[in-house]
Amino acid sequence: MNRTDNLLTKEKRPMDHTKAPLYEALCKYEKANHTSLHVPGHKDGRVFDLEAQRHFSEILKIDATCSNGIDDLHQPKDSIKEAQDLAANAFGADQTFFLVGGSTIGNLGIALTLCKPGDKVLVQRNMHKSVFNGLLLAGAQPVYISPAIESETKAAMVSDLHYIEEALKEDPDIKGVWVTNPNYYGMSQDLKRISEACRQAGVPLVVDEAHGAHFGQAEEVPPSALSMGANLVIQSTHKMLTALHMSSMLHVKGDLVDLERLERVLGMIQSTSPSYLLLGSLDLARRYLVVHGRNQMRDTVKRLEKRRVELSSELQSLTIWAGSPEVQYRDPLKWIIASKNEGVSGYQLLDLFHEEGAVAEISDPRNIVFLFSLNENEADIEKVVRAITAVDQRIQIEPAHSRKKAEVSMFDEEGTLSAPELSLQDAFNRPRRKVKLDDAAGLLCGETVLPYPPGIPLLNPGEKITERHIETIKQLHEMGAYFQSPSDLTMDTLYVIQ
């Protein structure tokens, strides 16, 4: 019996998901009430800001460190190992790693595991910035593939299989395929054929599934990337499940990944003083999902879908996206809301809904997205419905919120392959100079131009700046888009490579 067979047999073995071994170990630590003569300096909460004690006092008692009875993230043998095994079983992985730096750490770790300097990776162009940062650190050579664009929302999605197959045939030196699925909007594509194409090419399929940790956990939501054949999957357990912020999981399946190298890399980039609060919350998020969350999610989806259909027929000024033939799967826990008057931007809707007490997850030139949890009751849903109804009425009464429709172009035509003029690493290390945005066409970008969220770079270092890029930056800035860490907040200038 080979290694894969052993893992599959292990995966099928019943496991007790009512247990939360890491959290239970932290509770034992608290109950022992030993005198802390080790880090952290707050000494289990004895020394802490008095005003904040009412919020932090209980949780500080289990803000432990690796000590007798508390397992080590970098060499798990006891409670962390058991917690990760339970997570692998729950999510259908061969092996799962807990991450305390968000999916960013997972993306960095994957890049450093799969890529050696100069290696080529086929990368969906609408990836999170952490993917590009990982490729930069690894010295890899990204081959960008432009995404598909959903016709109504203009949201970027996975390119059609045809384009990915052609790219793999065109360049046999590609070492892996890296896509985002679902996108920030909950749109998910069927990855089975892509994973099969990768398998035939002998390269791993890597999926940034940050917004799909709940996928595959009930029939009412889309299937998971692991179930569709992905080899490496990153999930932000804190986004759609119940872990604390910065808590994520990295799942591995199949024999195309060097696990020993992955473990070494994670040992390099994860803190040697990881937060056991975050690690414990991952353990609890898995338990909650399996014991309660799956059934709660089924009921929540039924309530949301019923109310979405009813509300859609009542709205005069707004729409709630219901899916399209271009998208195989729609996440029912996300509502994509837009104005029927396309001159009303998503940034304006974000402000209008904030005034009504409803804070959206994301806004873009057209849309905002509401993100619901696994367990939403009728009263919670009705609060959102009231806010939608109020904004729907306000837009009818206040036409001054409208402005001229602007088509914003973020990416080249679907399937277009491109490589930066300079590698990410070369561009990072080259000298830079500031130029006026209007004078930048034809020059190589020297910084990351990042409308945020969702954290997808419009320009990466080393890419040639075009007139389209310049126009898009101006449009987004005028519409009120937020750019993360630009060298010039006014976006009038930017760095280029000398």
Automatic annotation (TrEMBL):
Belongs to the Orn/Lys/Arg decarboxylase class-I family. This is Aminotransferase class I/II-fold pyridoxal phosphate-dependent enzyme. One of its GO terms (molecular function) is transaminase activity. Pfam families: OKR_DC_1, OKR_DC_1_C. Gene3D superfamilies: Orn/Lys/Arg decarboxylase, C-terminal domain, Type I PLP-dependent aspartate aminotransferase-like (Major domain). The keyword Transferase applies. PANTHER family: ARGININE DECARBOXYLASE, DECARBOXYLASE, PUTATIVE-RELATED. Transmembrane segments: none annotated. SUPFAM superfamilies: Ornithine decarboxylase C-terminal domain (SSF55904), PLP-dependent transferases (SSF53383). Residues 21-318 form the Orn/Lys/Arg decarboxylases family 1 pyridoxal-P attachment site domain. It comes from Siminovitchia sediminis. Residues 419-477 form the Orn/Lys/Arg decarboxylase C-terminal domain.
